[in-house]
Amino acid sequence: MPKKGTASLFDLIQSLDKAEKRYFKLYAGSKGADANMIYLKLFDAVEQQKEYNEREIVKQIQPPSKKQFSTTKRYLHDLILHSLRDQRSRFTVAAELRTLLDWSEILFDKMLYKQCRNMLVKAKKLAYKYELYNFIAAIIDQEYKIAFREYDTDAFNSLQEQEARAAELISGQNRYRNRSVSFWKMQMKMGAARKAKDISDISDAINDPILKNEKSVSGFYSKRHLYNSYFLYHLIRGDQKKCFEFSKKSVDMYLHQPHHIRQSAEYFLGQLNNLLIACANRRMFPEMNFYIRKLKEVSLGLKGNANPITAFFYRYHELNYYINTGAFSEGIPVAGEIGEQMKKYERFLSPLQKATLWMGIAQISFGNGNYRQALSWLNHIHKLGELEVRKDILVLTKIFYLMLSYEMGDKPLSTYLQRNAKNYMSTRNRLYKLEKVMLHFFSKVILKARSKNERTQAFRVLKDKLTGLNTDPLEKNAFDDFDYLSWVESKIEGRPLAEIVKEKIA
User: Fold this and answer.
1) Which of 158, 190, 272, 454 ranks highest by number of CB atoms within 10 Å?
2) Does the predicted model carry a pTM greater than 0.70?
3) Which of 429, 483, 476 has the alpha carbon at shortest distance from 237?
4) DSSP 244-296
5) pLDDT digits over 392-432, tens only?
6) Cα separation of 128 and 166, whole Å?
7) CB 237 within 8 A of CB 193
């Protein structure tokens, strides 16, 4: 068995893209390194591994001692981080501000106070422009040091006023961010409101006085957090019109002030994600297609690893576009491409992100009649086990298993899945009526239907029940996960699901 050892160096090296690896080699070369140095041999050995095997690495590079091997690992790890910091010094405004502060400290130590002050003025302008107020405190602290060193008593009053103002701005941002985070936690926990108590809980949260007057909110990020709070509030309530309104306001802010995208690309991607959710739920497919293109356009300019991975996850909107428009066959190449790319990104994605992408691919396969393939993708979700958040996705998976077993005509599989779904769903106290109706249909009703006419009649009764539930404010959110009604109609009319869906949006 390979020795596990410490995998932190392995994880860091494996996370590097080609440009970062190339830059590291150049950076190491600038430090006087050559290919024979032990830490470069270690880098190459780790890079070539698929799984971390410390024994094999020791055998390959033959360090003089165990102690030196440990020292070399630490040195290489730190050198890679120095290389990444150097390469990314202008990726974001925050990185640029950290560099300016570092330089100002060097100039201060050299007693070059005028140059130091000029550096801090530049940093302060940048921090205010991008509303990065936490940096203001560090900049003012450095300005205090200059004032003390030069006995500039006149500067203290101004610095104290600036410090108080910065603290006020930071406090304001934090209040709006904390409120937005509280709604995010509620949405992750409950998904959509299913009970009257859910509505009551989020109504209490939205009545916070700071959320009452949009016009009184100043600052880009405070307003973004305000819009995000309202988006999540209405998403939980199922008010898709309001979801669209507030997510579009947030995206429009970024598009009108694009310099903020550079600093907070991940947040911009998140707001685009919200807007695409709203477009899908409101069936605004031309708009959805437009913002998918915008997402791709922004993704091309993303730096580093985290943001491109986030953008990759948001490709689930492409899958949803094909699913919601009935263009299942057109979605096959995209689903195949995403499925293949999952091999590259899977270890960076959360269980929820994996489940979301796999469910999209499964639905594309289902819509094309590739039931065995859809089953394979659902099995990936099943292997994840219990999700910490958005447990409603697992309920959707159970129902989808039942639909698949029916389509495949696999009675042993159907019996097993019915029992599995019933056992799992019986432990849930937050089931939609829709989910209960679907479980009852597959475990009781359809089993009694012996002839084609009886099955068709059973589906007609199911359609009537689902149609009624679709008008219930606490139930309609469940229909956003999958177009159950169109699938039921396809069984009644004996036509492909794609055909039914396309007719509805024509």
Assistant:
1) 272
2) yes
3) 476
4) HHHHHHHHHHHHHSTHHHHH-HHHHHHHHHHHHHHHHHTT-HHHHHHHHHHHH
5) 677 788 888 889 888 888 666 666 666 776 666 666 666 67
6) 10
7) yes
